[in-house]
Write a structure and sequence with these properties.
- The chain is an alpha+beta fold.
- The protein folds into two domains: about 200 residues, Beta-Lactamase (2-Layer Sandwich), CATH 3.30.450; about 70 residues, 434 Repressor (Amino-terminal Domain).
- About 45% of the residues lie in helices and about 15% in strands.
- It contains 13 helices and seven strands.
- Strands 1, 2, 3, 4, 5, 6 and 7 form a seven-stranded antiparallel sheet that branches.
- A hairpin with a 5-residue loop joins strand 3 and strand 4.
- Helix 2 packs across helix 4, helix 2 packs antiparallel against helix 6 and helix 3 crosses helix 4.
- The protein is elongated, with a radius of gyration of 21 Å.
């Protein structure tokens, strides 16, 4: 389900509904779920000094992951298939403009585009600005709108590694109550993945934890495939797969049939059932790595009974 959220004087946003250390556990679980195993992070970590062949290896990797032939990429990039072949084998060195054009065609993340430029011996062009920088005032204004839109809707902003950047009081109260602990939200390193799948988080309150864990594997797997050199994402994926392996209660799903239009999060808080779903918002036209990797998730009750339970949880803070 797709929608759009926007605010005056704030960047346009888009919204959609959603409900690696060791390579071995990733491969085993990925194969069970029918996912292709992400390449090991070291696949595109490049030695120095850089060489034309290094760029070519990366180009071939991304082209293959995009399921494009050399001819497909050549046609989309307005370049000859022969030149694509020469770039991949290191026989030709691409221009800076060519690197950016091919990265655009392949729809690569900005962080990866910088890596591609550096592999071709050009300077990176996309900045990674701190969220506290004055240049981020527009993005922060948009965050304020989303976080304060409804005091009864738990909302959290997080980065590429799923680390919490900012959150509203409703989110902090909900997580503290569901986990039976009080996080130091100003001092603790709080990670969304670990909150939902780790033993110190809200796992015990999630009655459909296996389904949620598999969903996190899917999302992390998608991220890992788009950022194959990202050790942080690889470690998070391994964290979830290890949690699944230790729980022993997650099996491959053989059917996608469901009575719900989205994957619900089903909670039980001292005998009070509550069903939530979430919307995920991104800035739609990023030109900065931090902005592109920023996500805002808002949690909503799925029915009137869940609304009452959520209100009771939040009022009892």
């Amino acid at each position: 389900m797709e929608g759009r959220q926007s605010a005056p004087s704030a960047p346009e946003t888009r919204t959609n509904v959603r409900g690696n250390g060791s390579q071995a556990p990733q491969k085993e679980f990925s194969e069970a779920k029918g996912f292709p195993t992400p390449p090991a992070p070291k696949t595109v970590q490049s030695p120095k000094p850089r060489t034309p062949g290094q760029f070519g290896q990366m180009l071939k990797l991304w082209r293959t992951q995009a399921h494009m032939s050399q001819a497909d990429l050549a046609l989309a990039g307005n370049v000859s298939a022969r030149h694509v072949s020469f770039m991949e084998t290191g026989r030709a060195r691409p221009s800076r403009k060519m690197v950016l054009r091919l990265a655009e065609v392949l729809d690569l993340p900005l962080r990866v585009r910088n890596t591609m430029l550096e592999a071709a011996d050009y300077a990176a062009v996309y900045a990674e600005t701190s969220v506290d920088d004055t240049k981020m005032s527009g993005a922060n204004a948009a965050l304020d709108v989303l976080l304060n839109a409804d005091p009864l809707r738990p909302t959290v902003a997080f980065n590429r590694q799923w680390d919490v950047i900012r959150s509203n009081g409703a989110f902090r109260t909900l997580i503290d109550k569901l986990s039976n602990r009080s996080f130091d939200w100003d001092g603790d390193h709080v990670n969304i993945i670990k909150i939902f799948t780790g033993n110190d988080g809200i796992k015990n309150a999630l009655t459909n934890w296996p389904d949620i864990a598999v969903e996190f594997v899917r999302r992390l797997h998608k991220q890992a495939m788009a950022n194959v050199a990202d050790q942080d994402l690889a470690d998070l994926l391994d964290f979830v797969l290890t949690a699944i392996d230790q729980s022993g209660d997650v099996k491959p799903r053989r059917s996608v049939k469901s009575r719900s239009p989205y994957l619900p999060m089903r909670f039980d808080l001292n005998g009070r059932p509550m069903v939530l779903f979430s919307t995920l918002t991104h800035i739609s036209t990023p030109r900065d790595i931090t902005v592109e990797e920023l996500s805002v998730e808002m949690f909503h009750p799925a029915d009137a009974k869940s609304q009452k339970v959520l209100e009771a949880i939040l009022s009892d803070s």
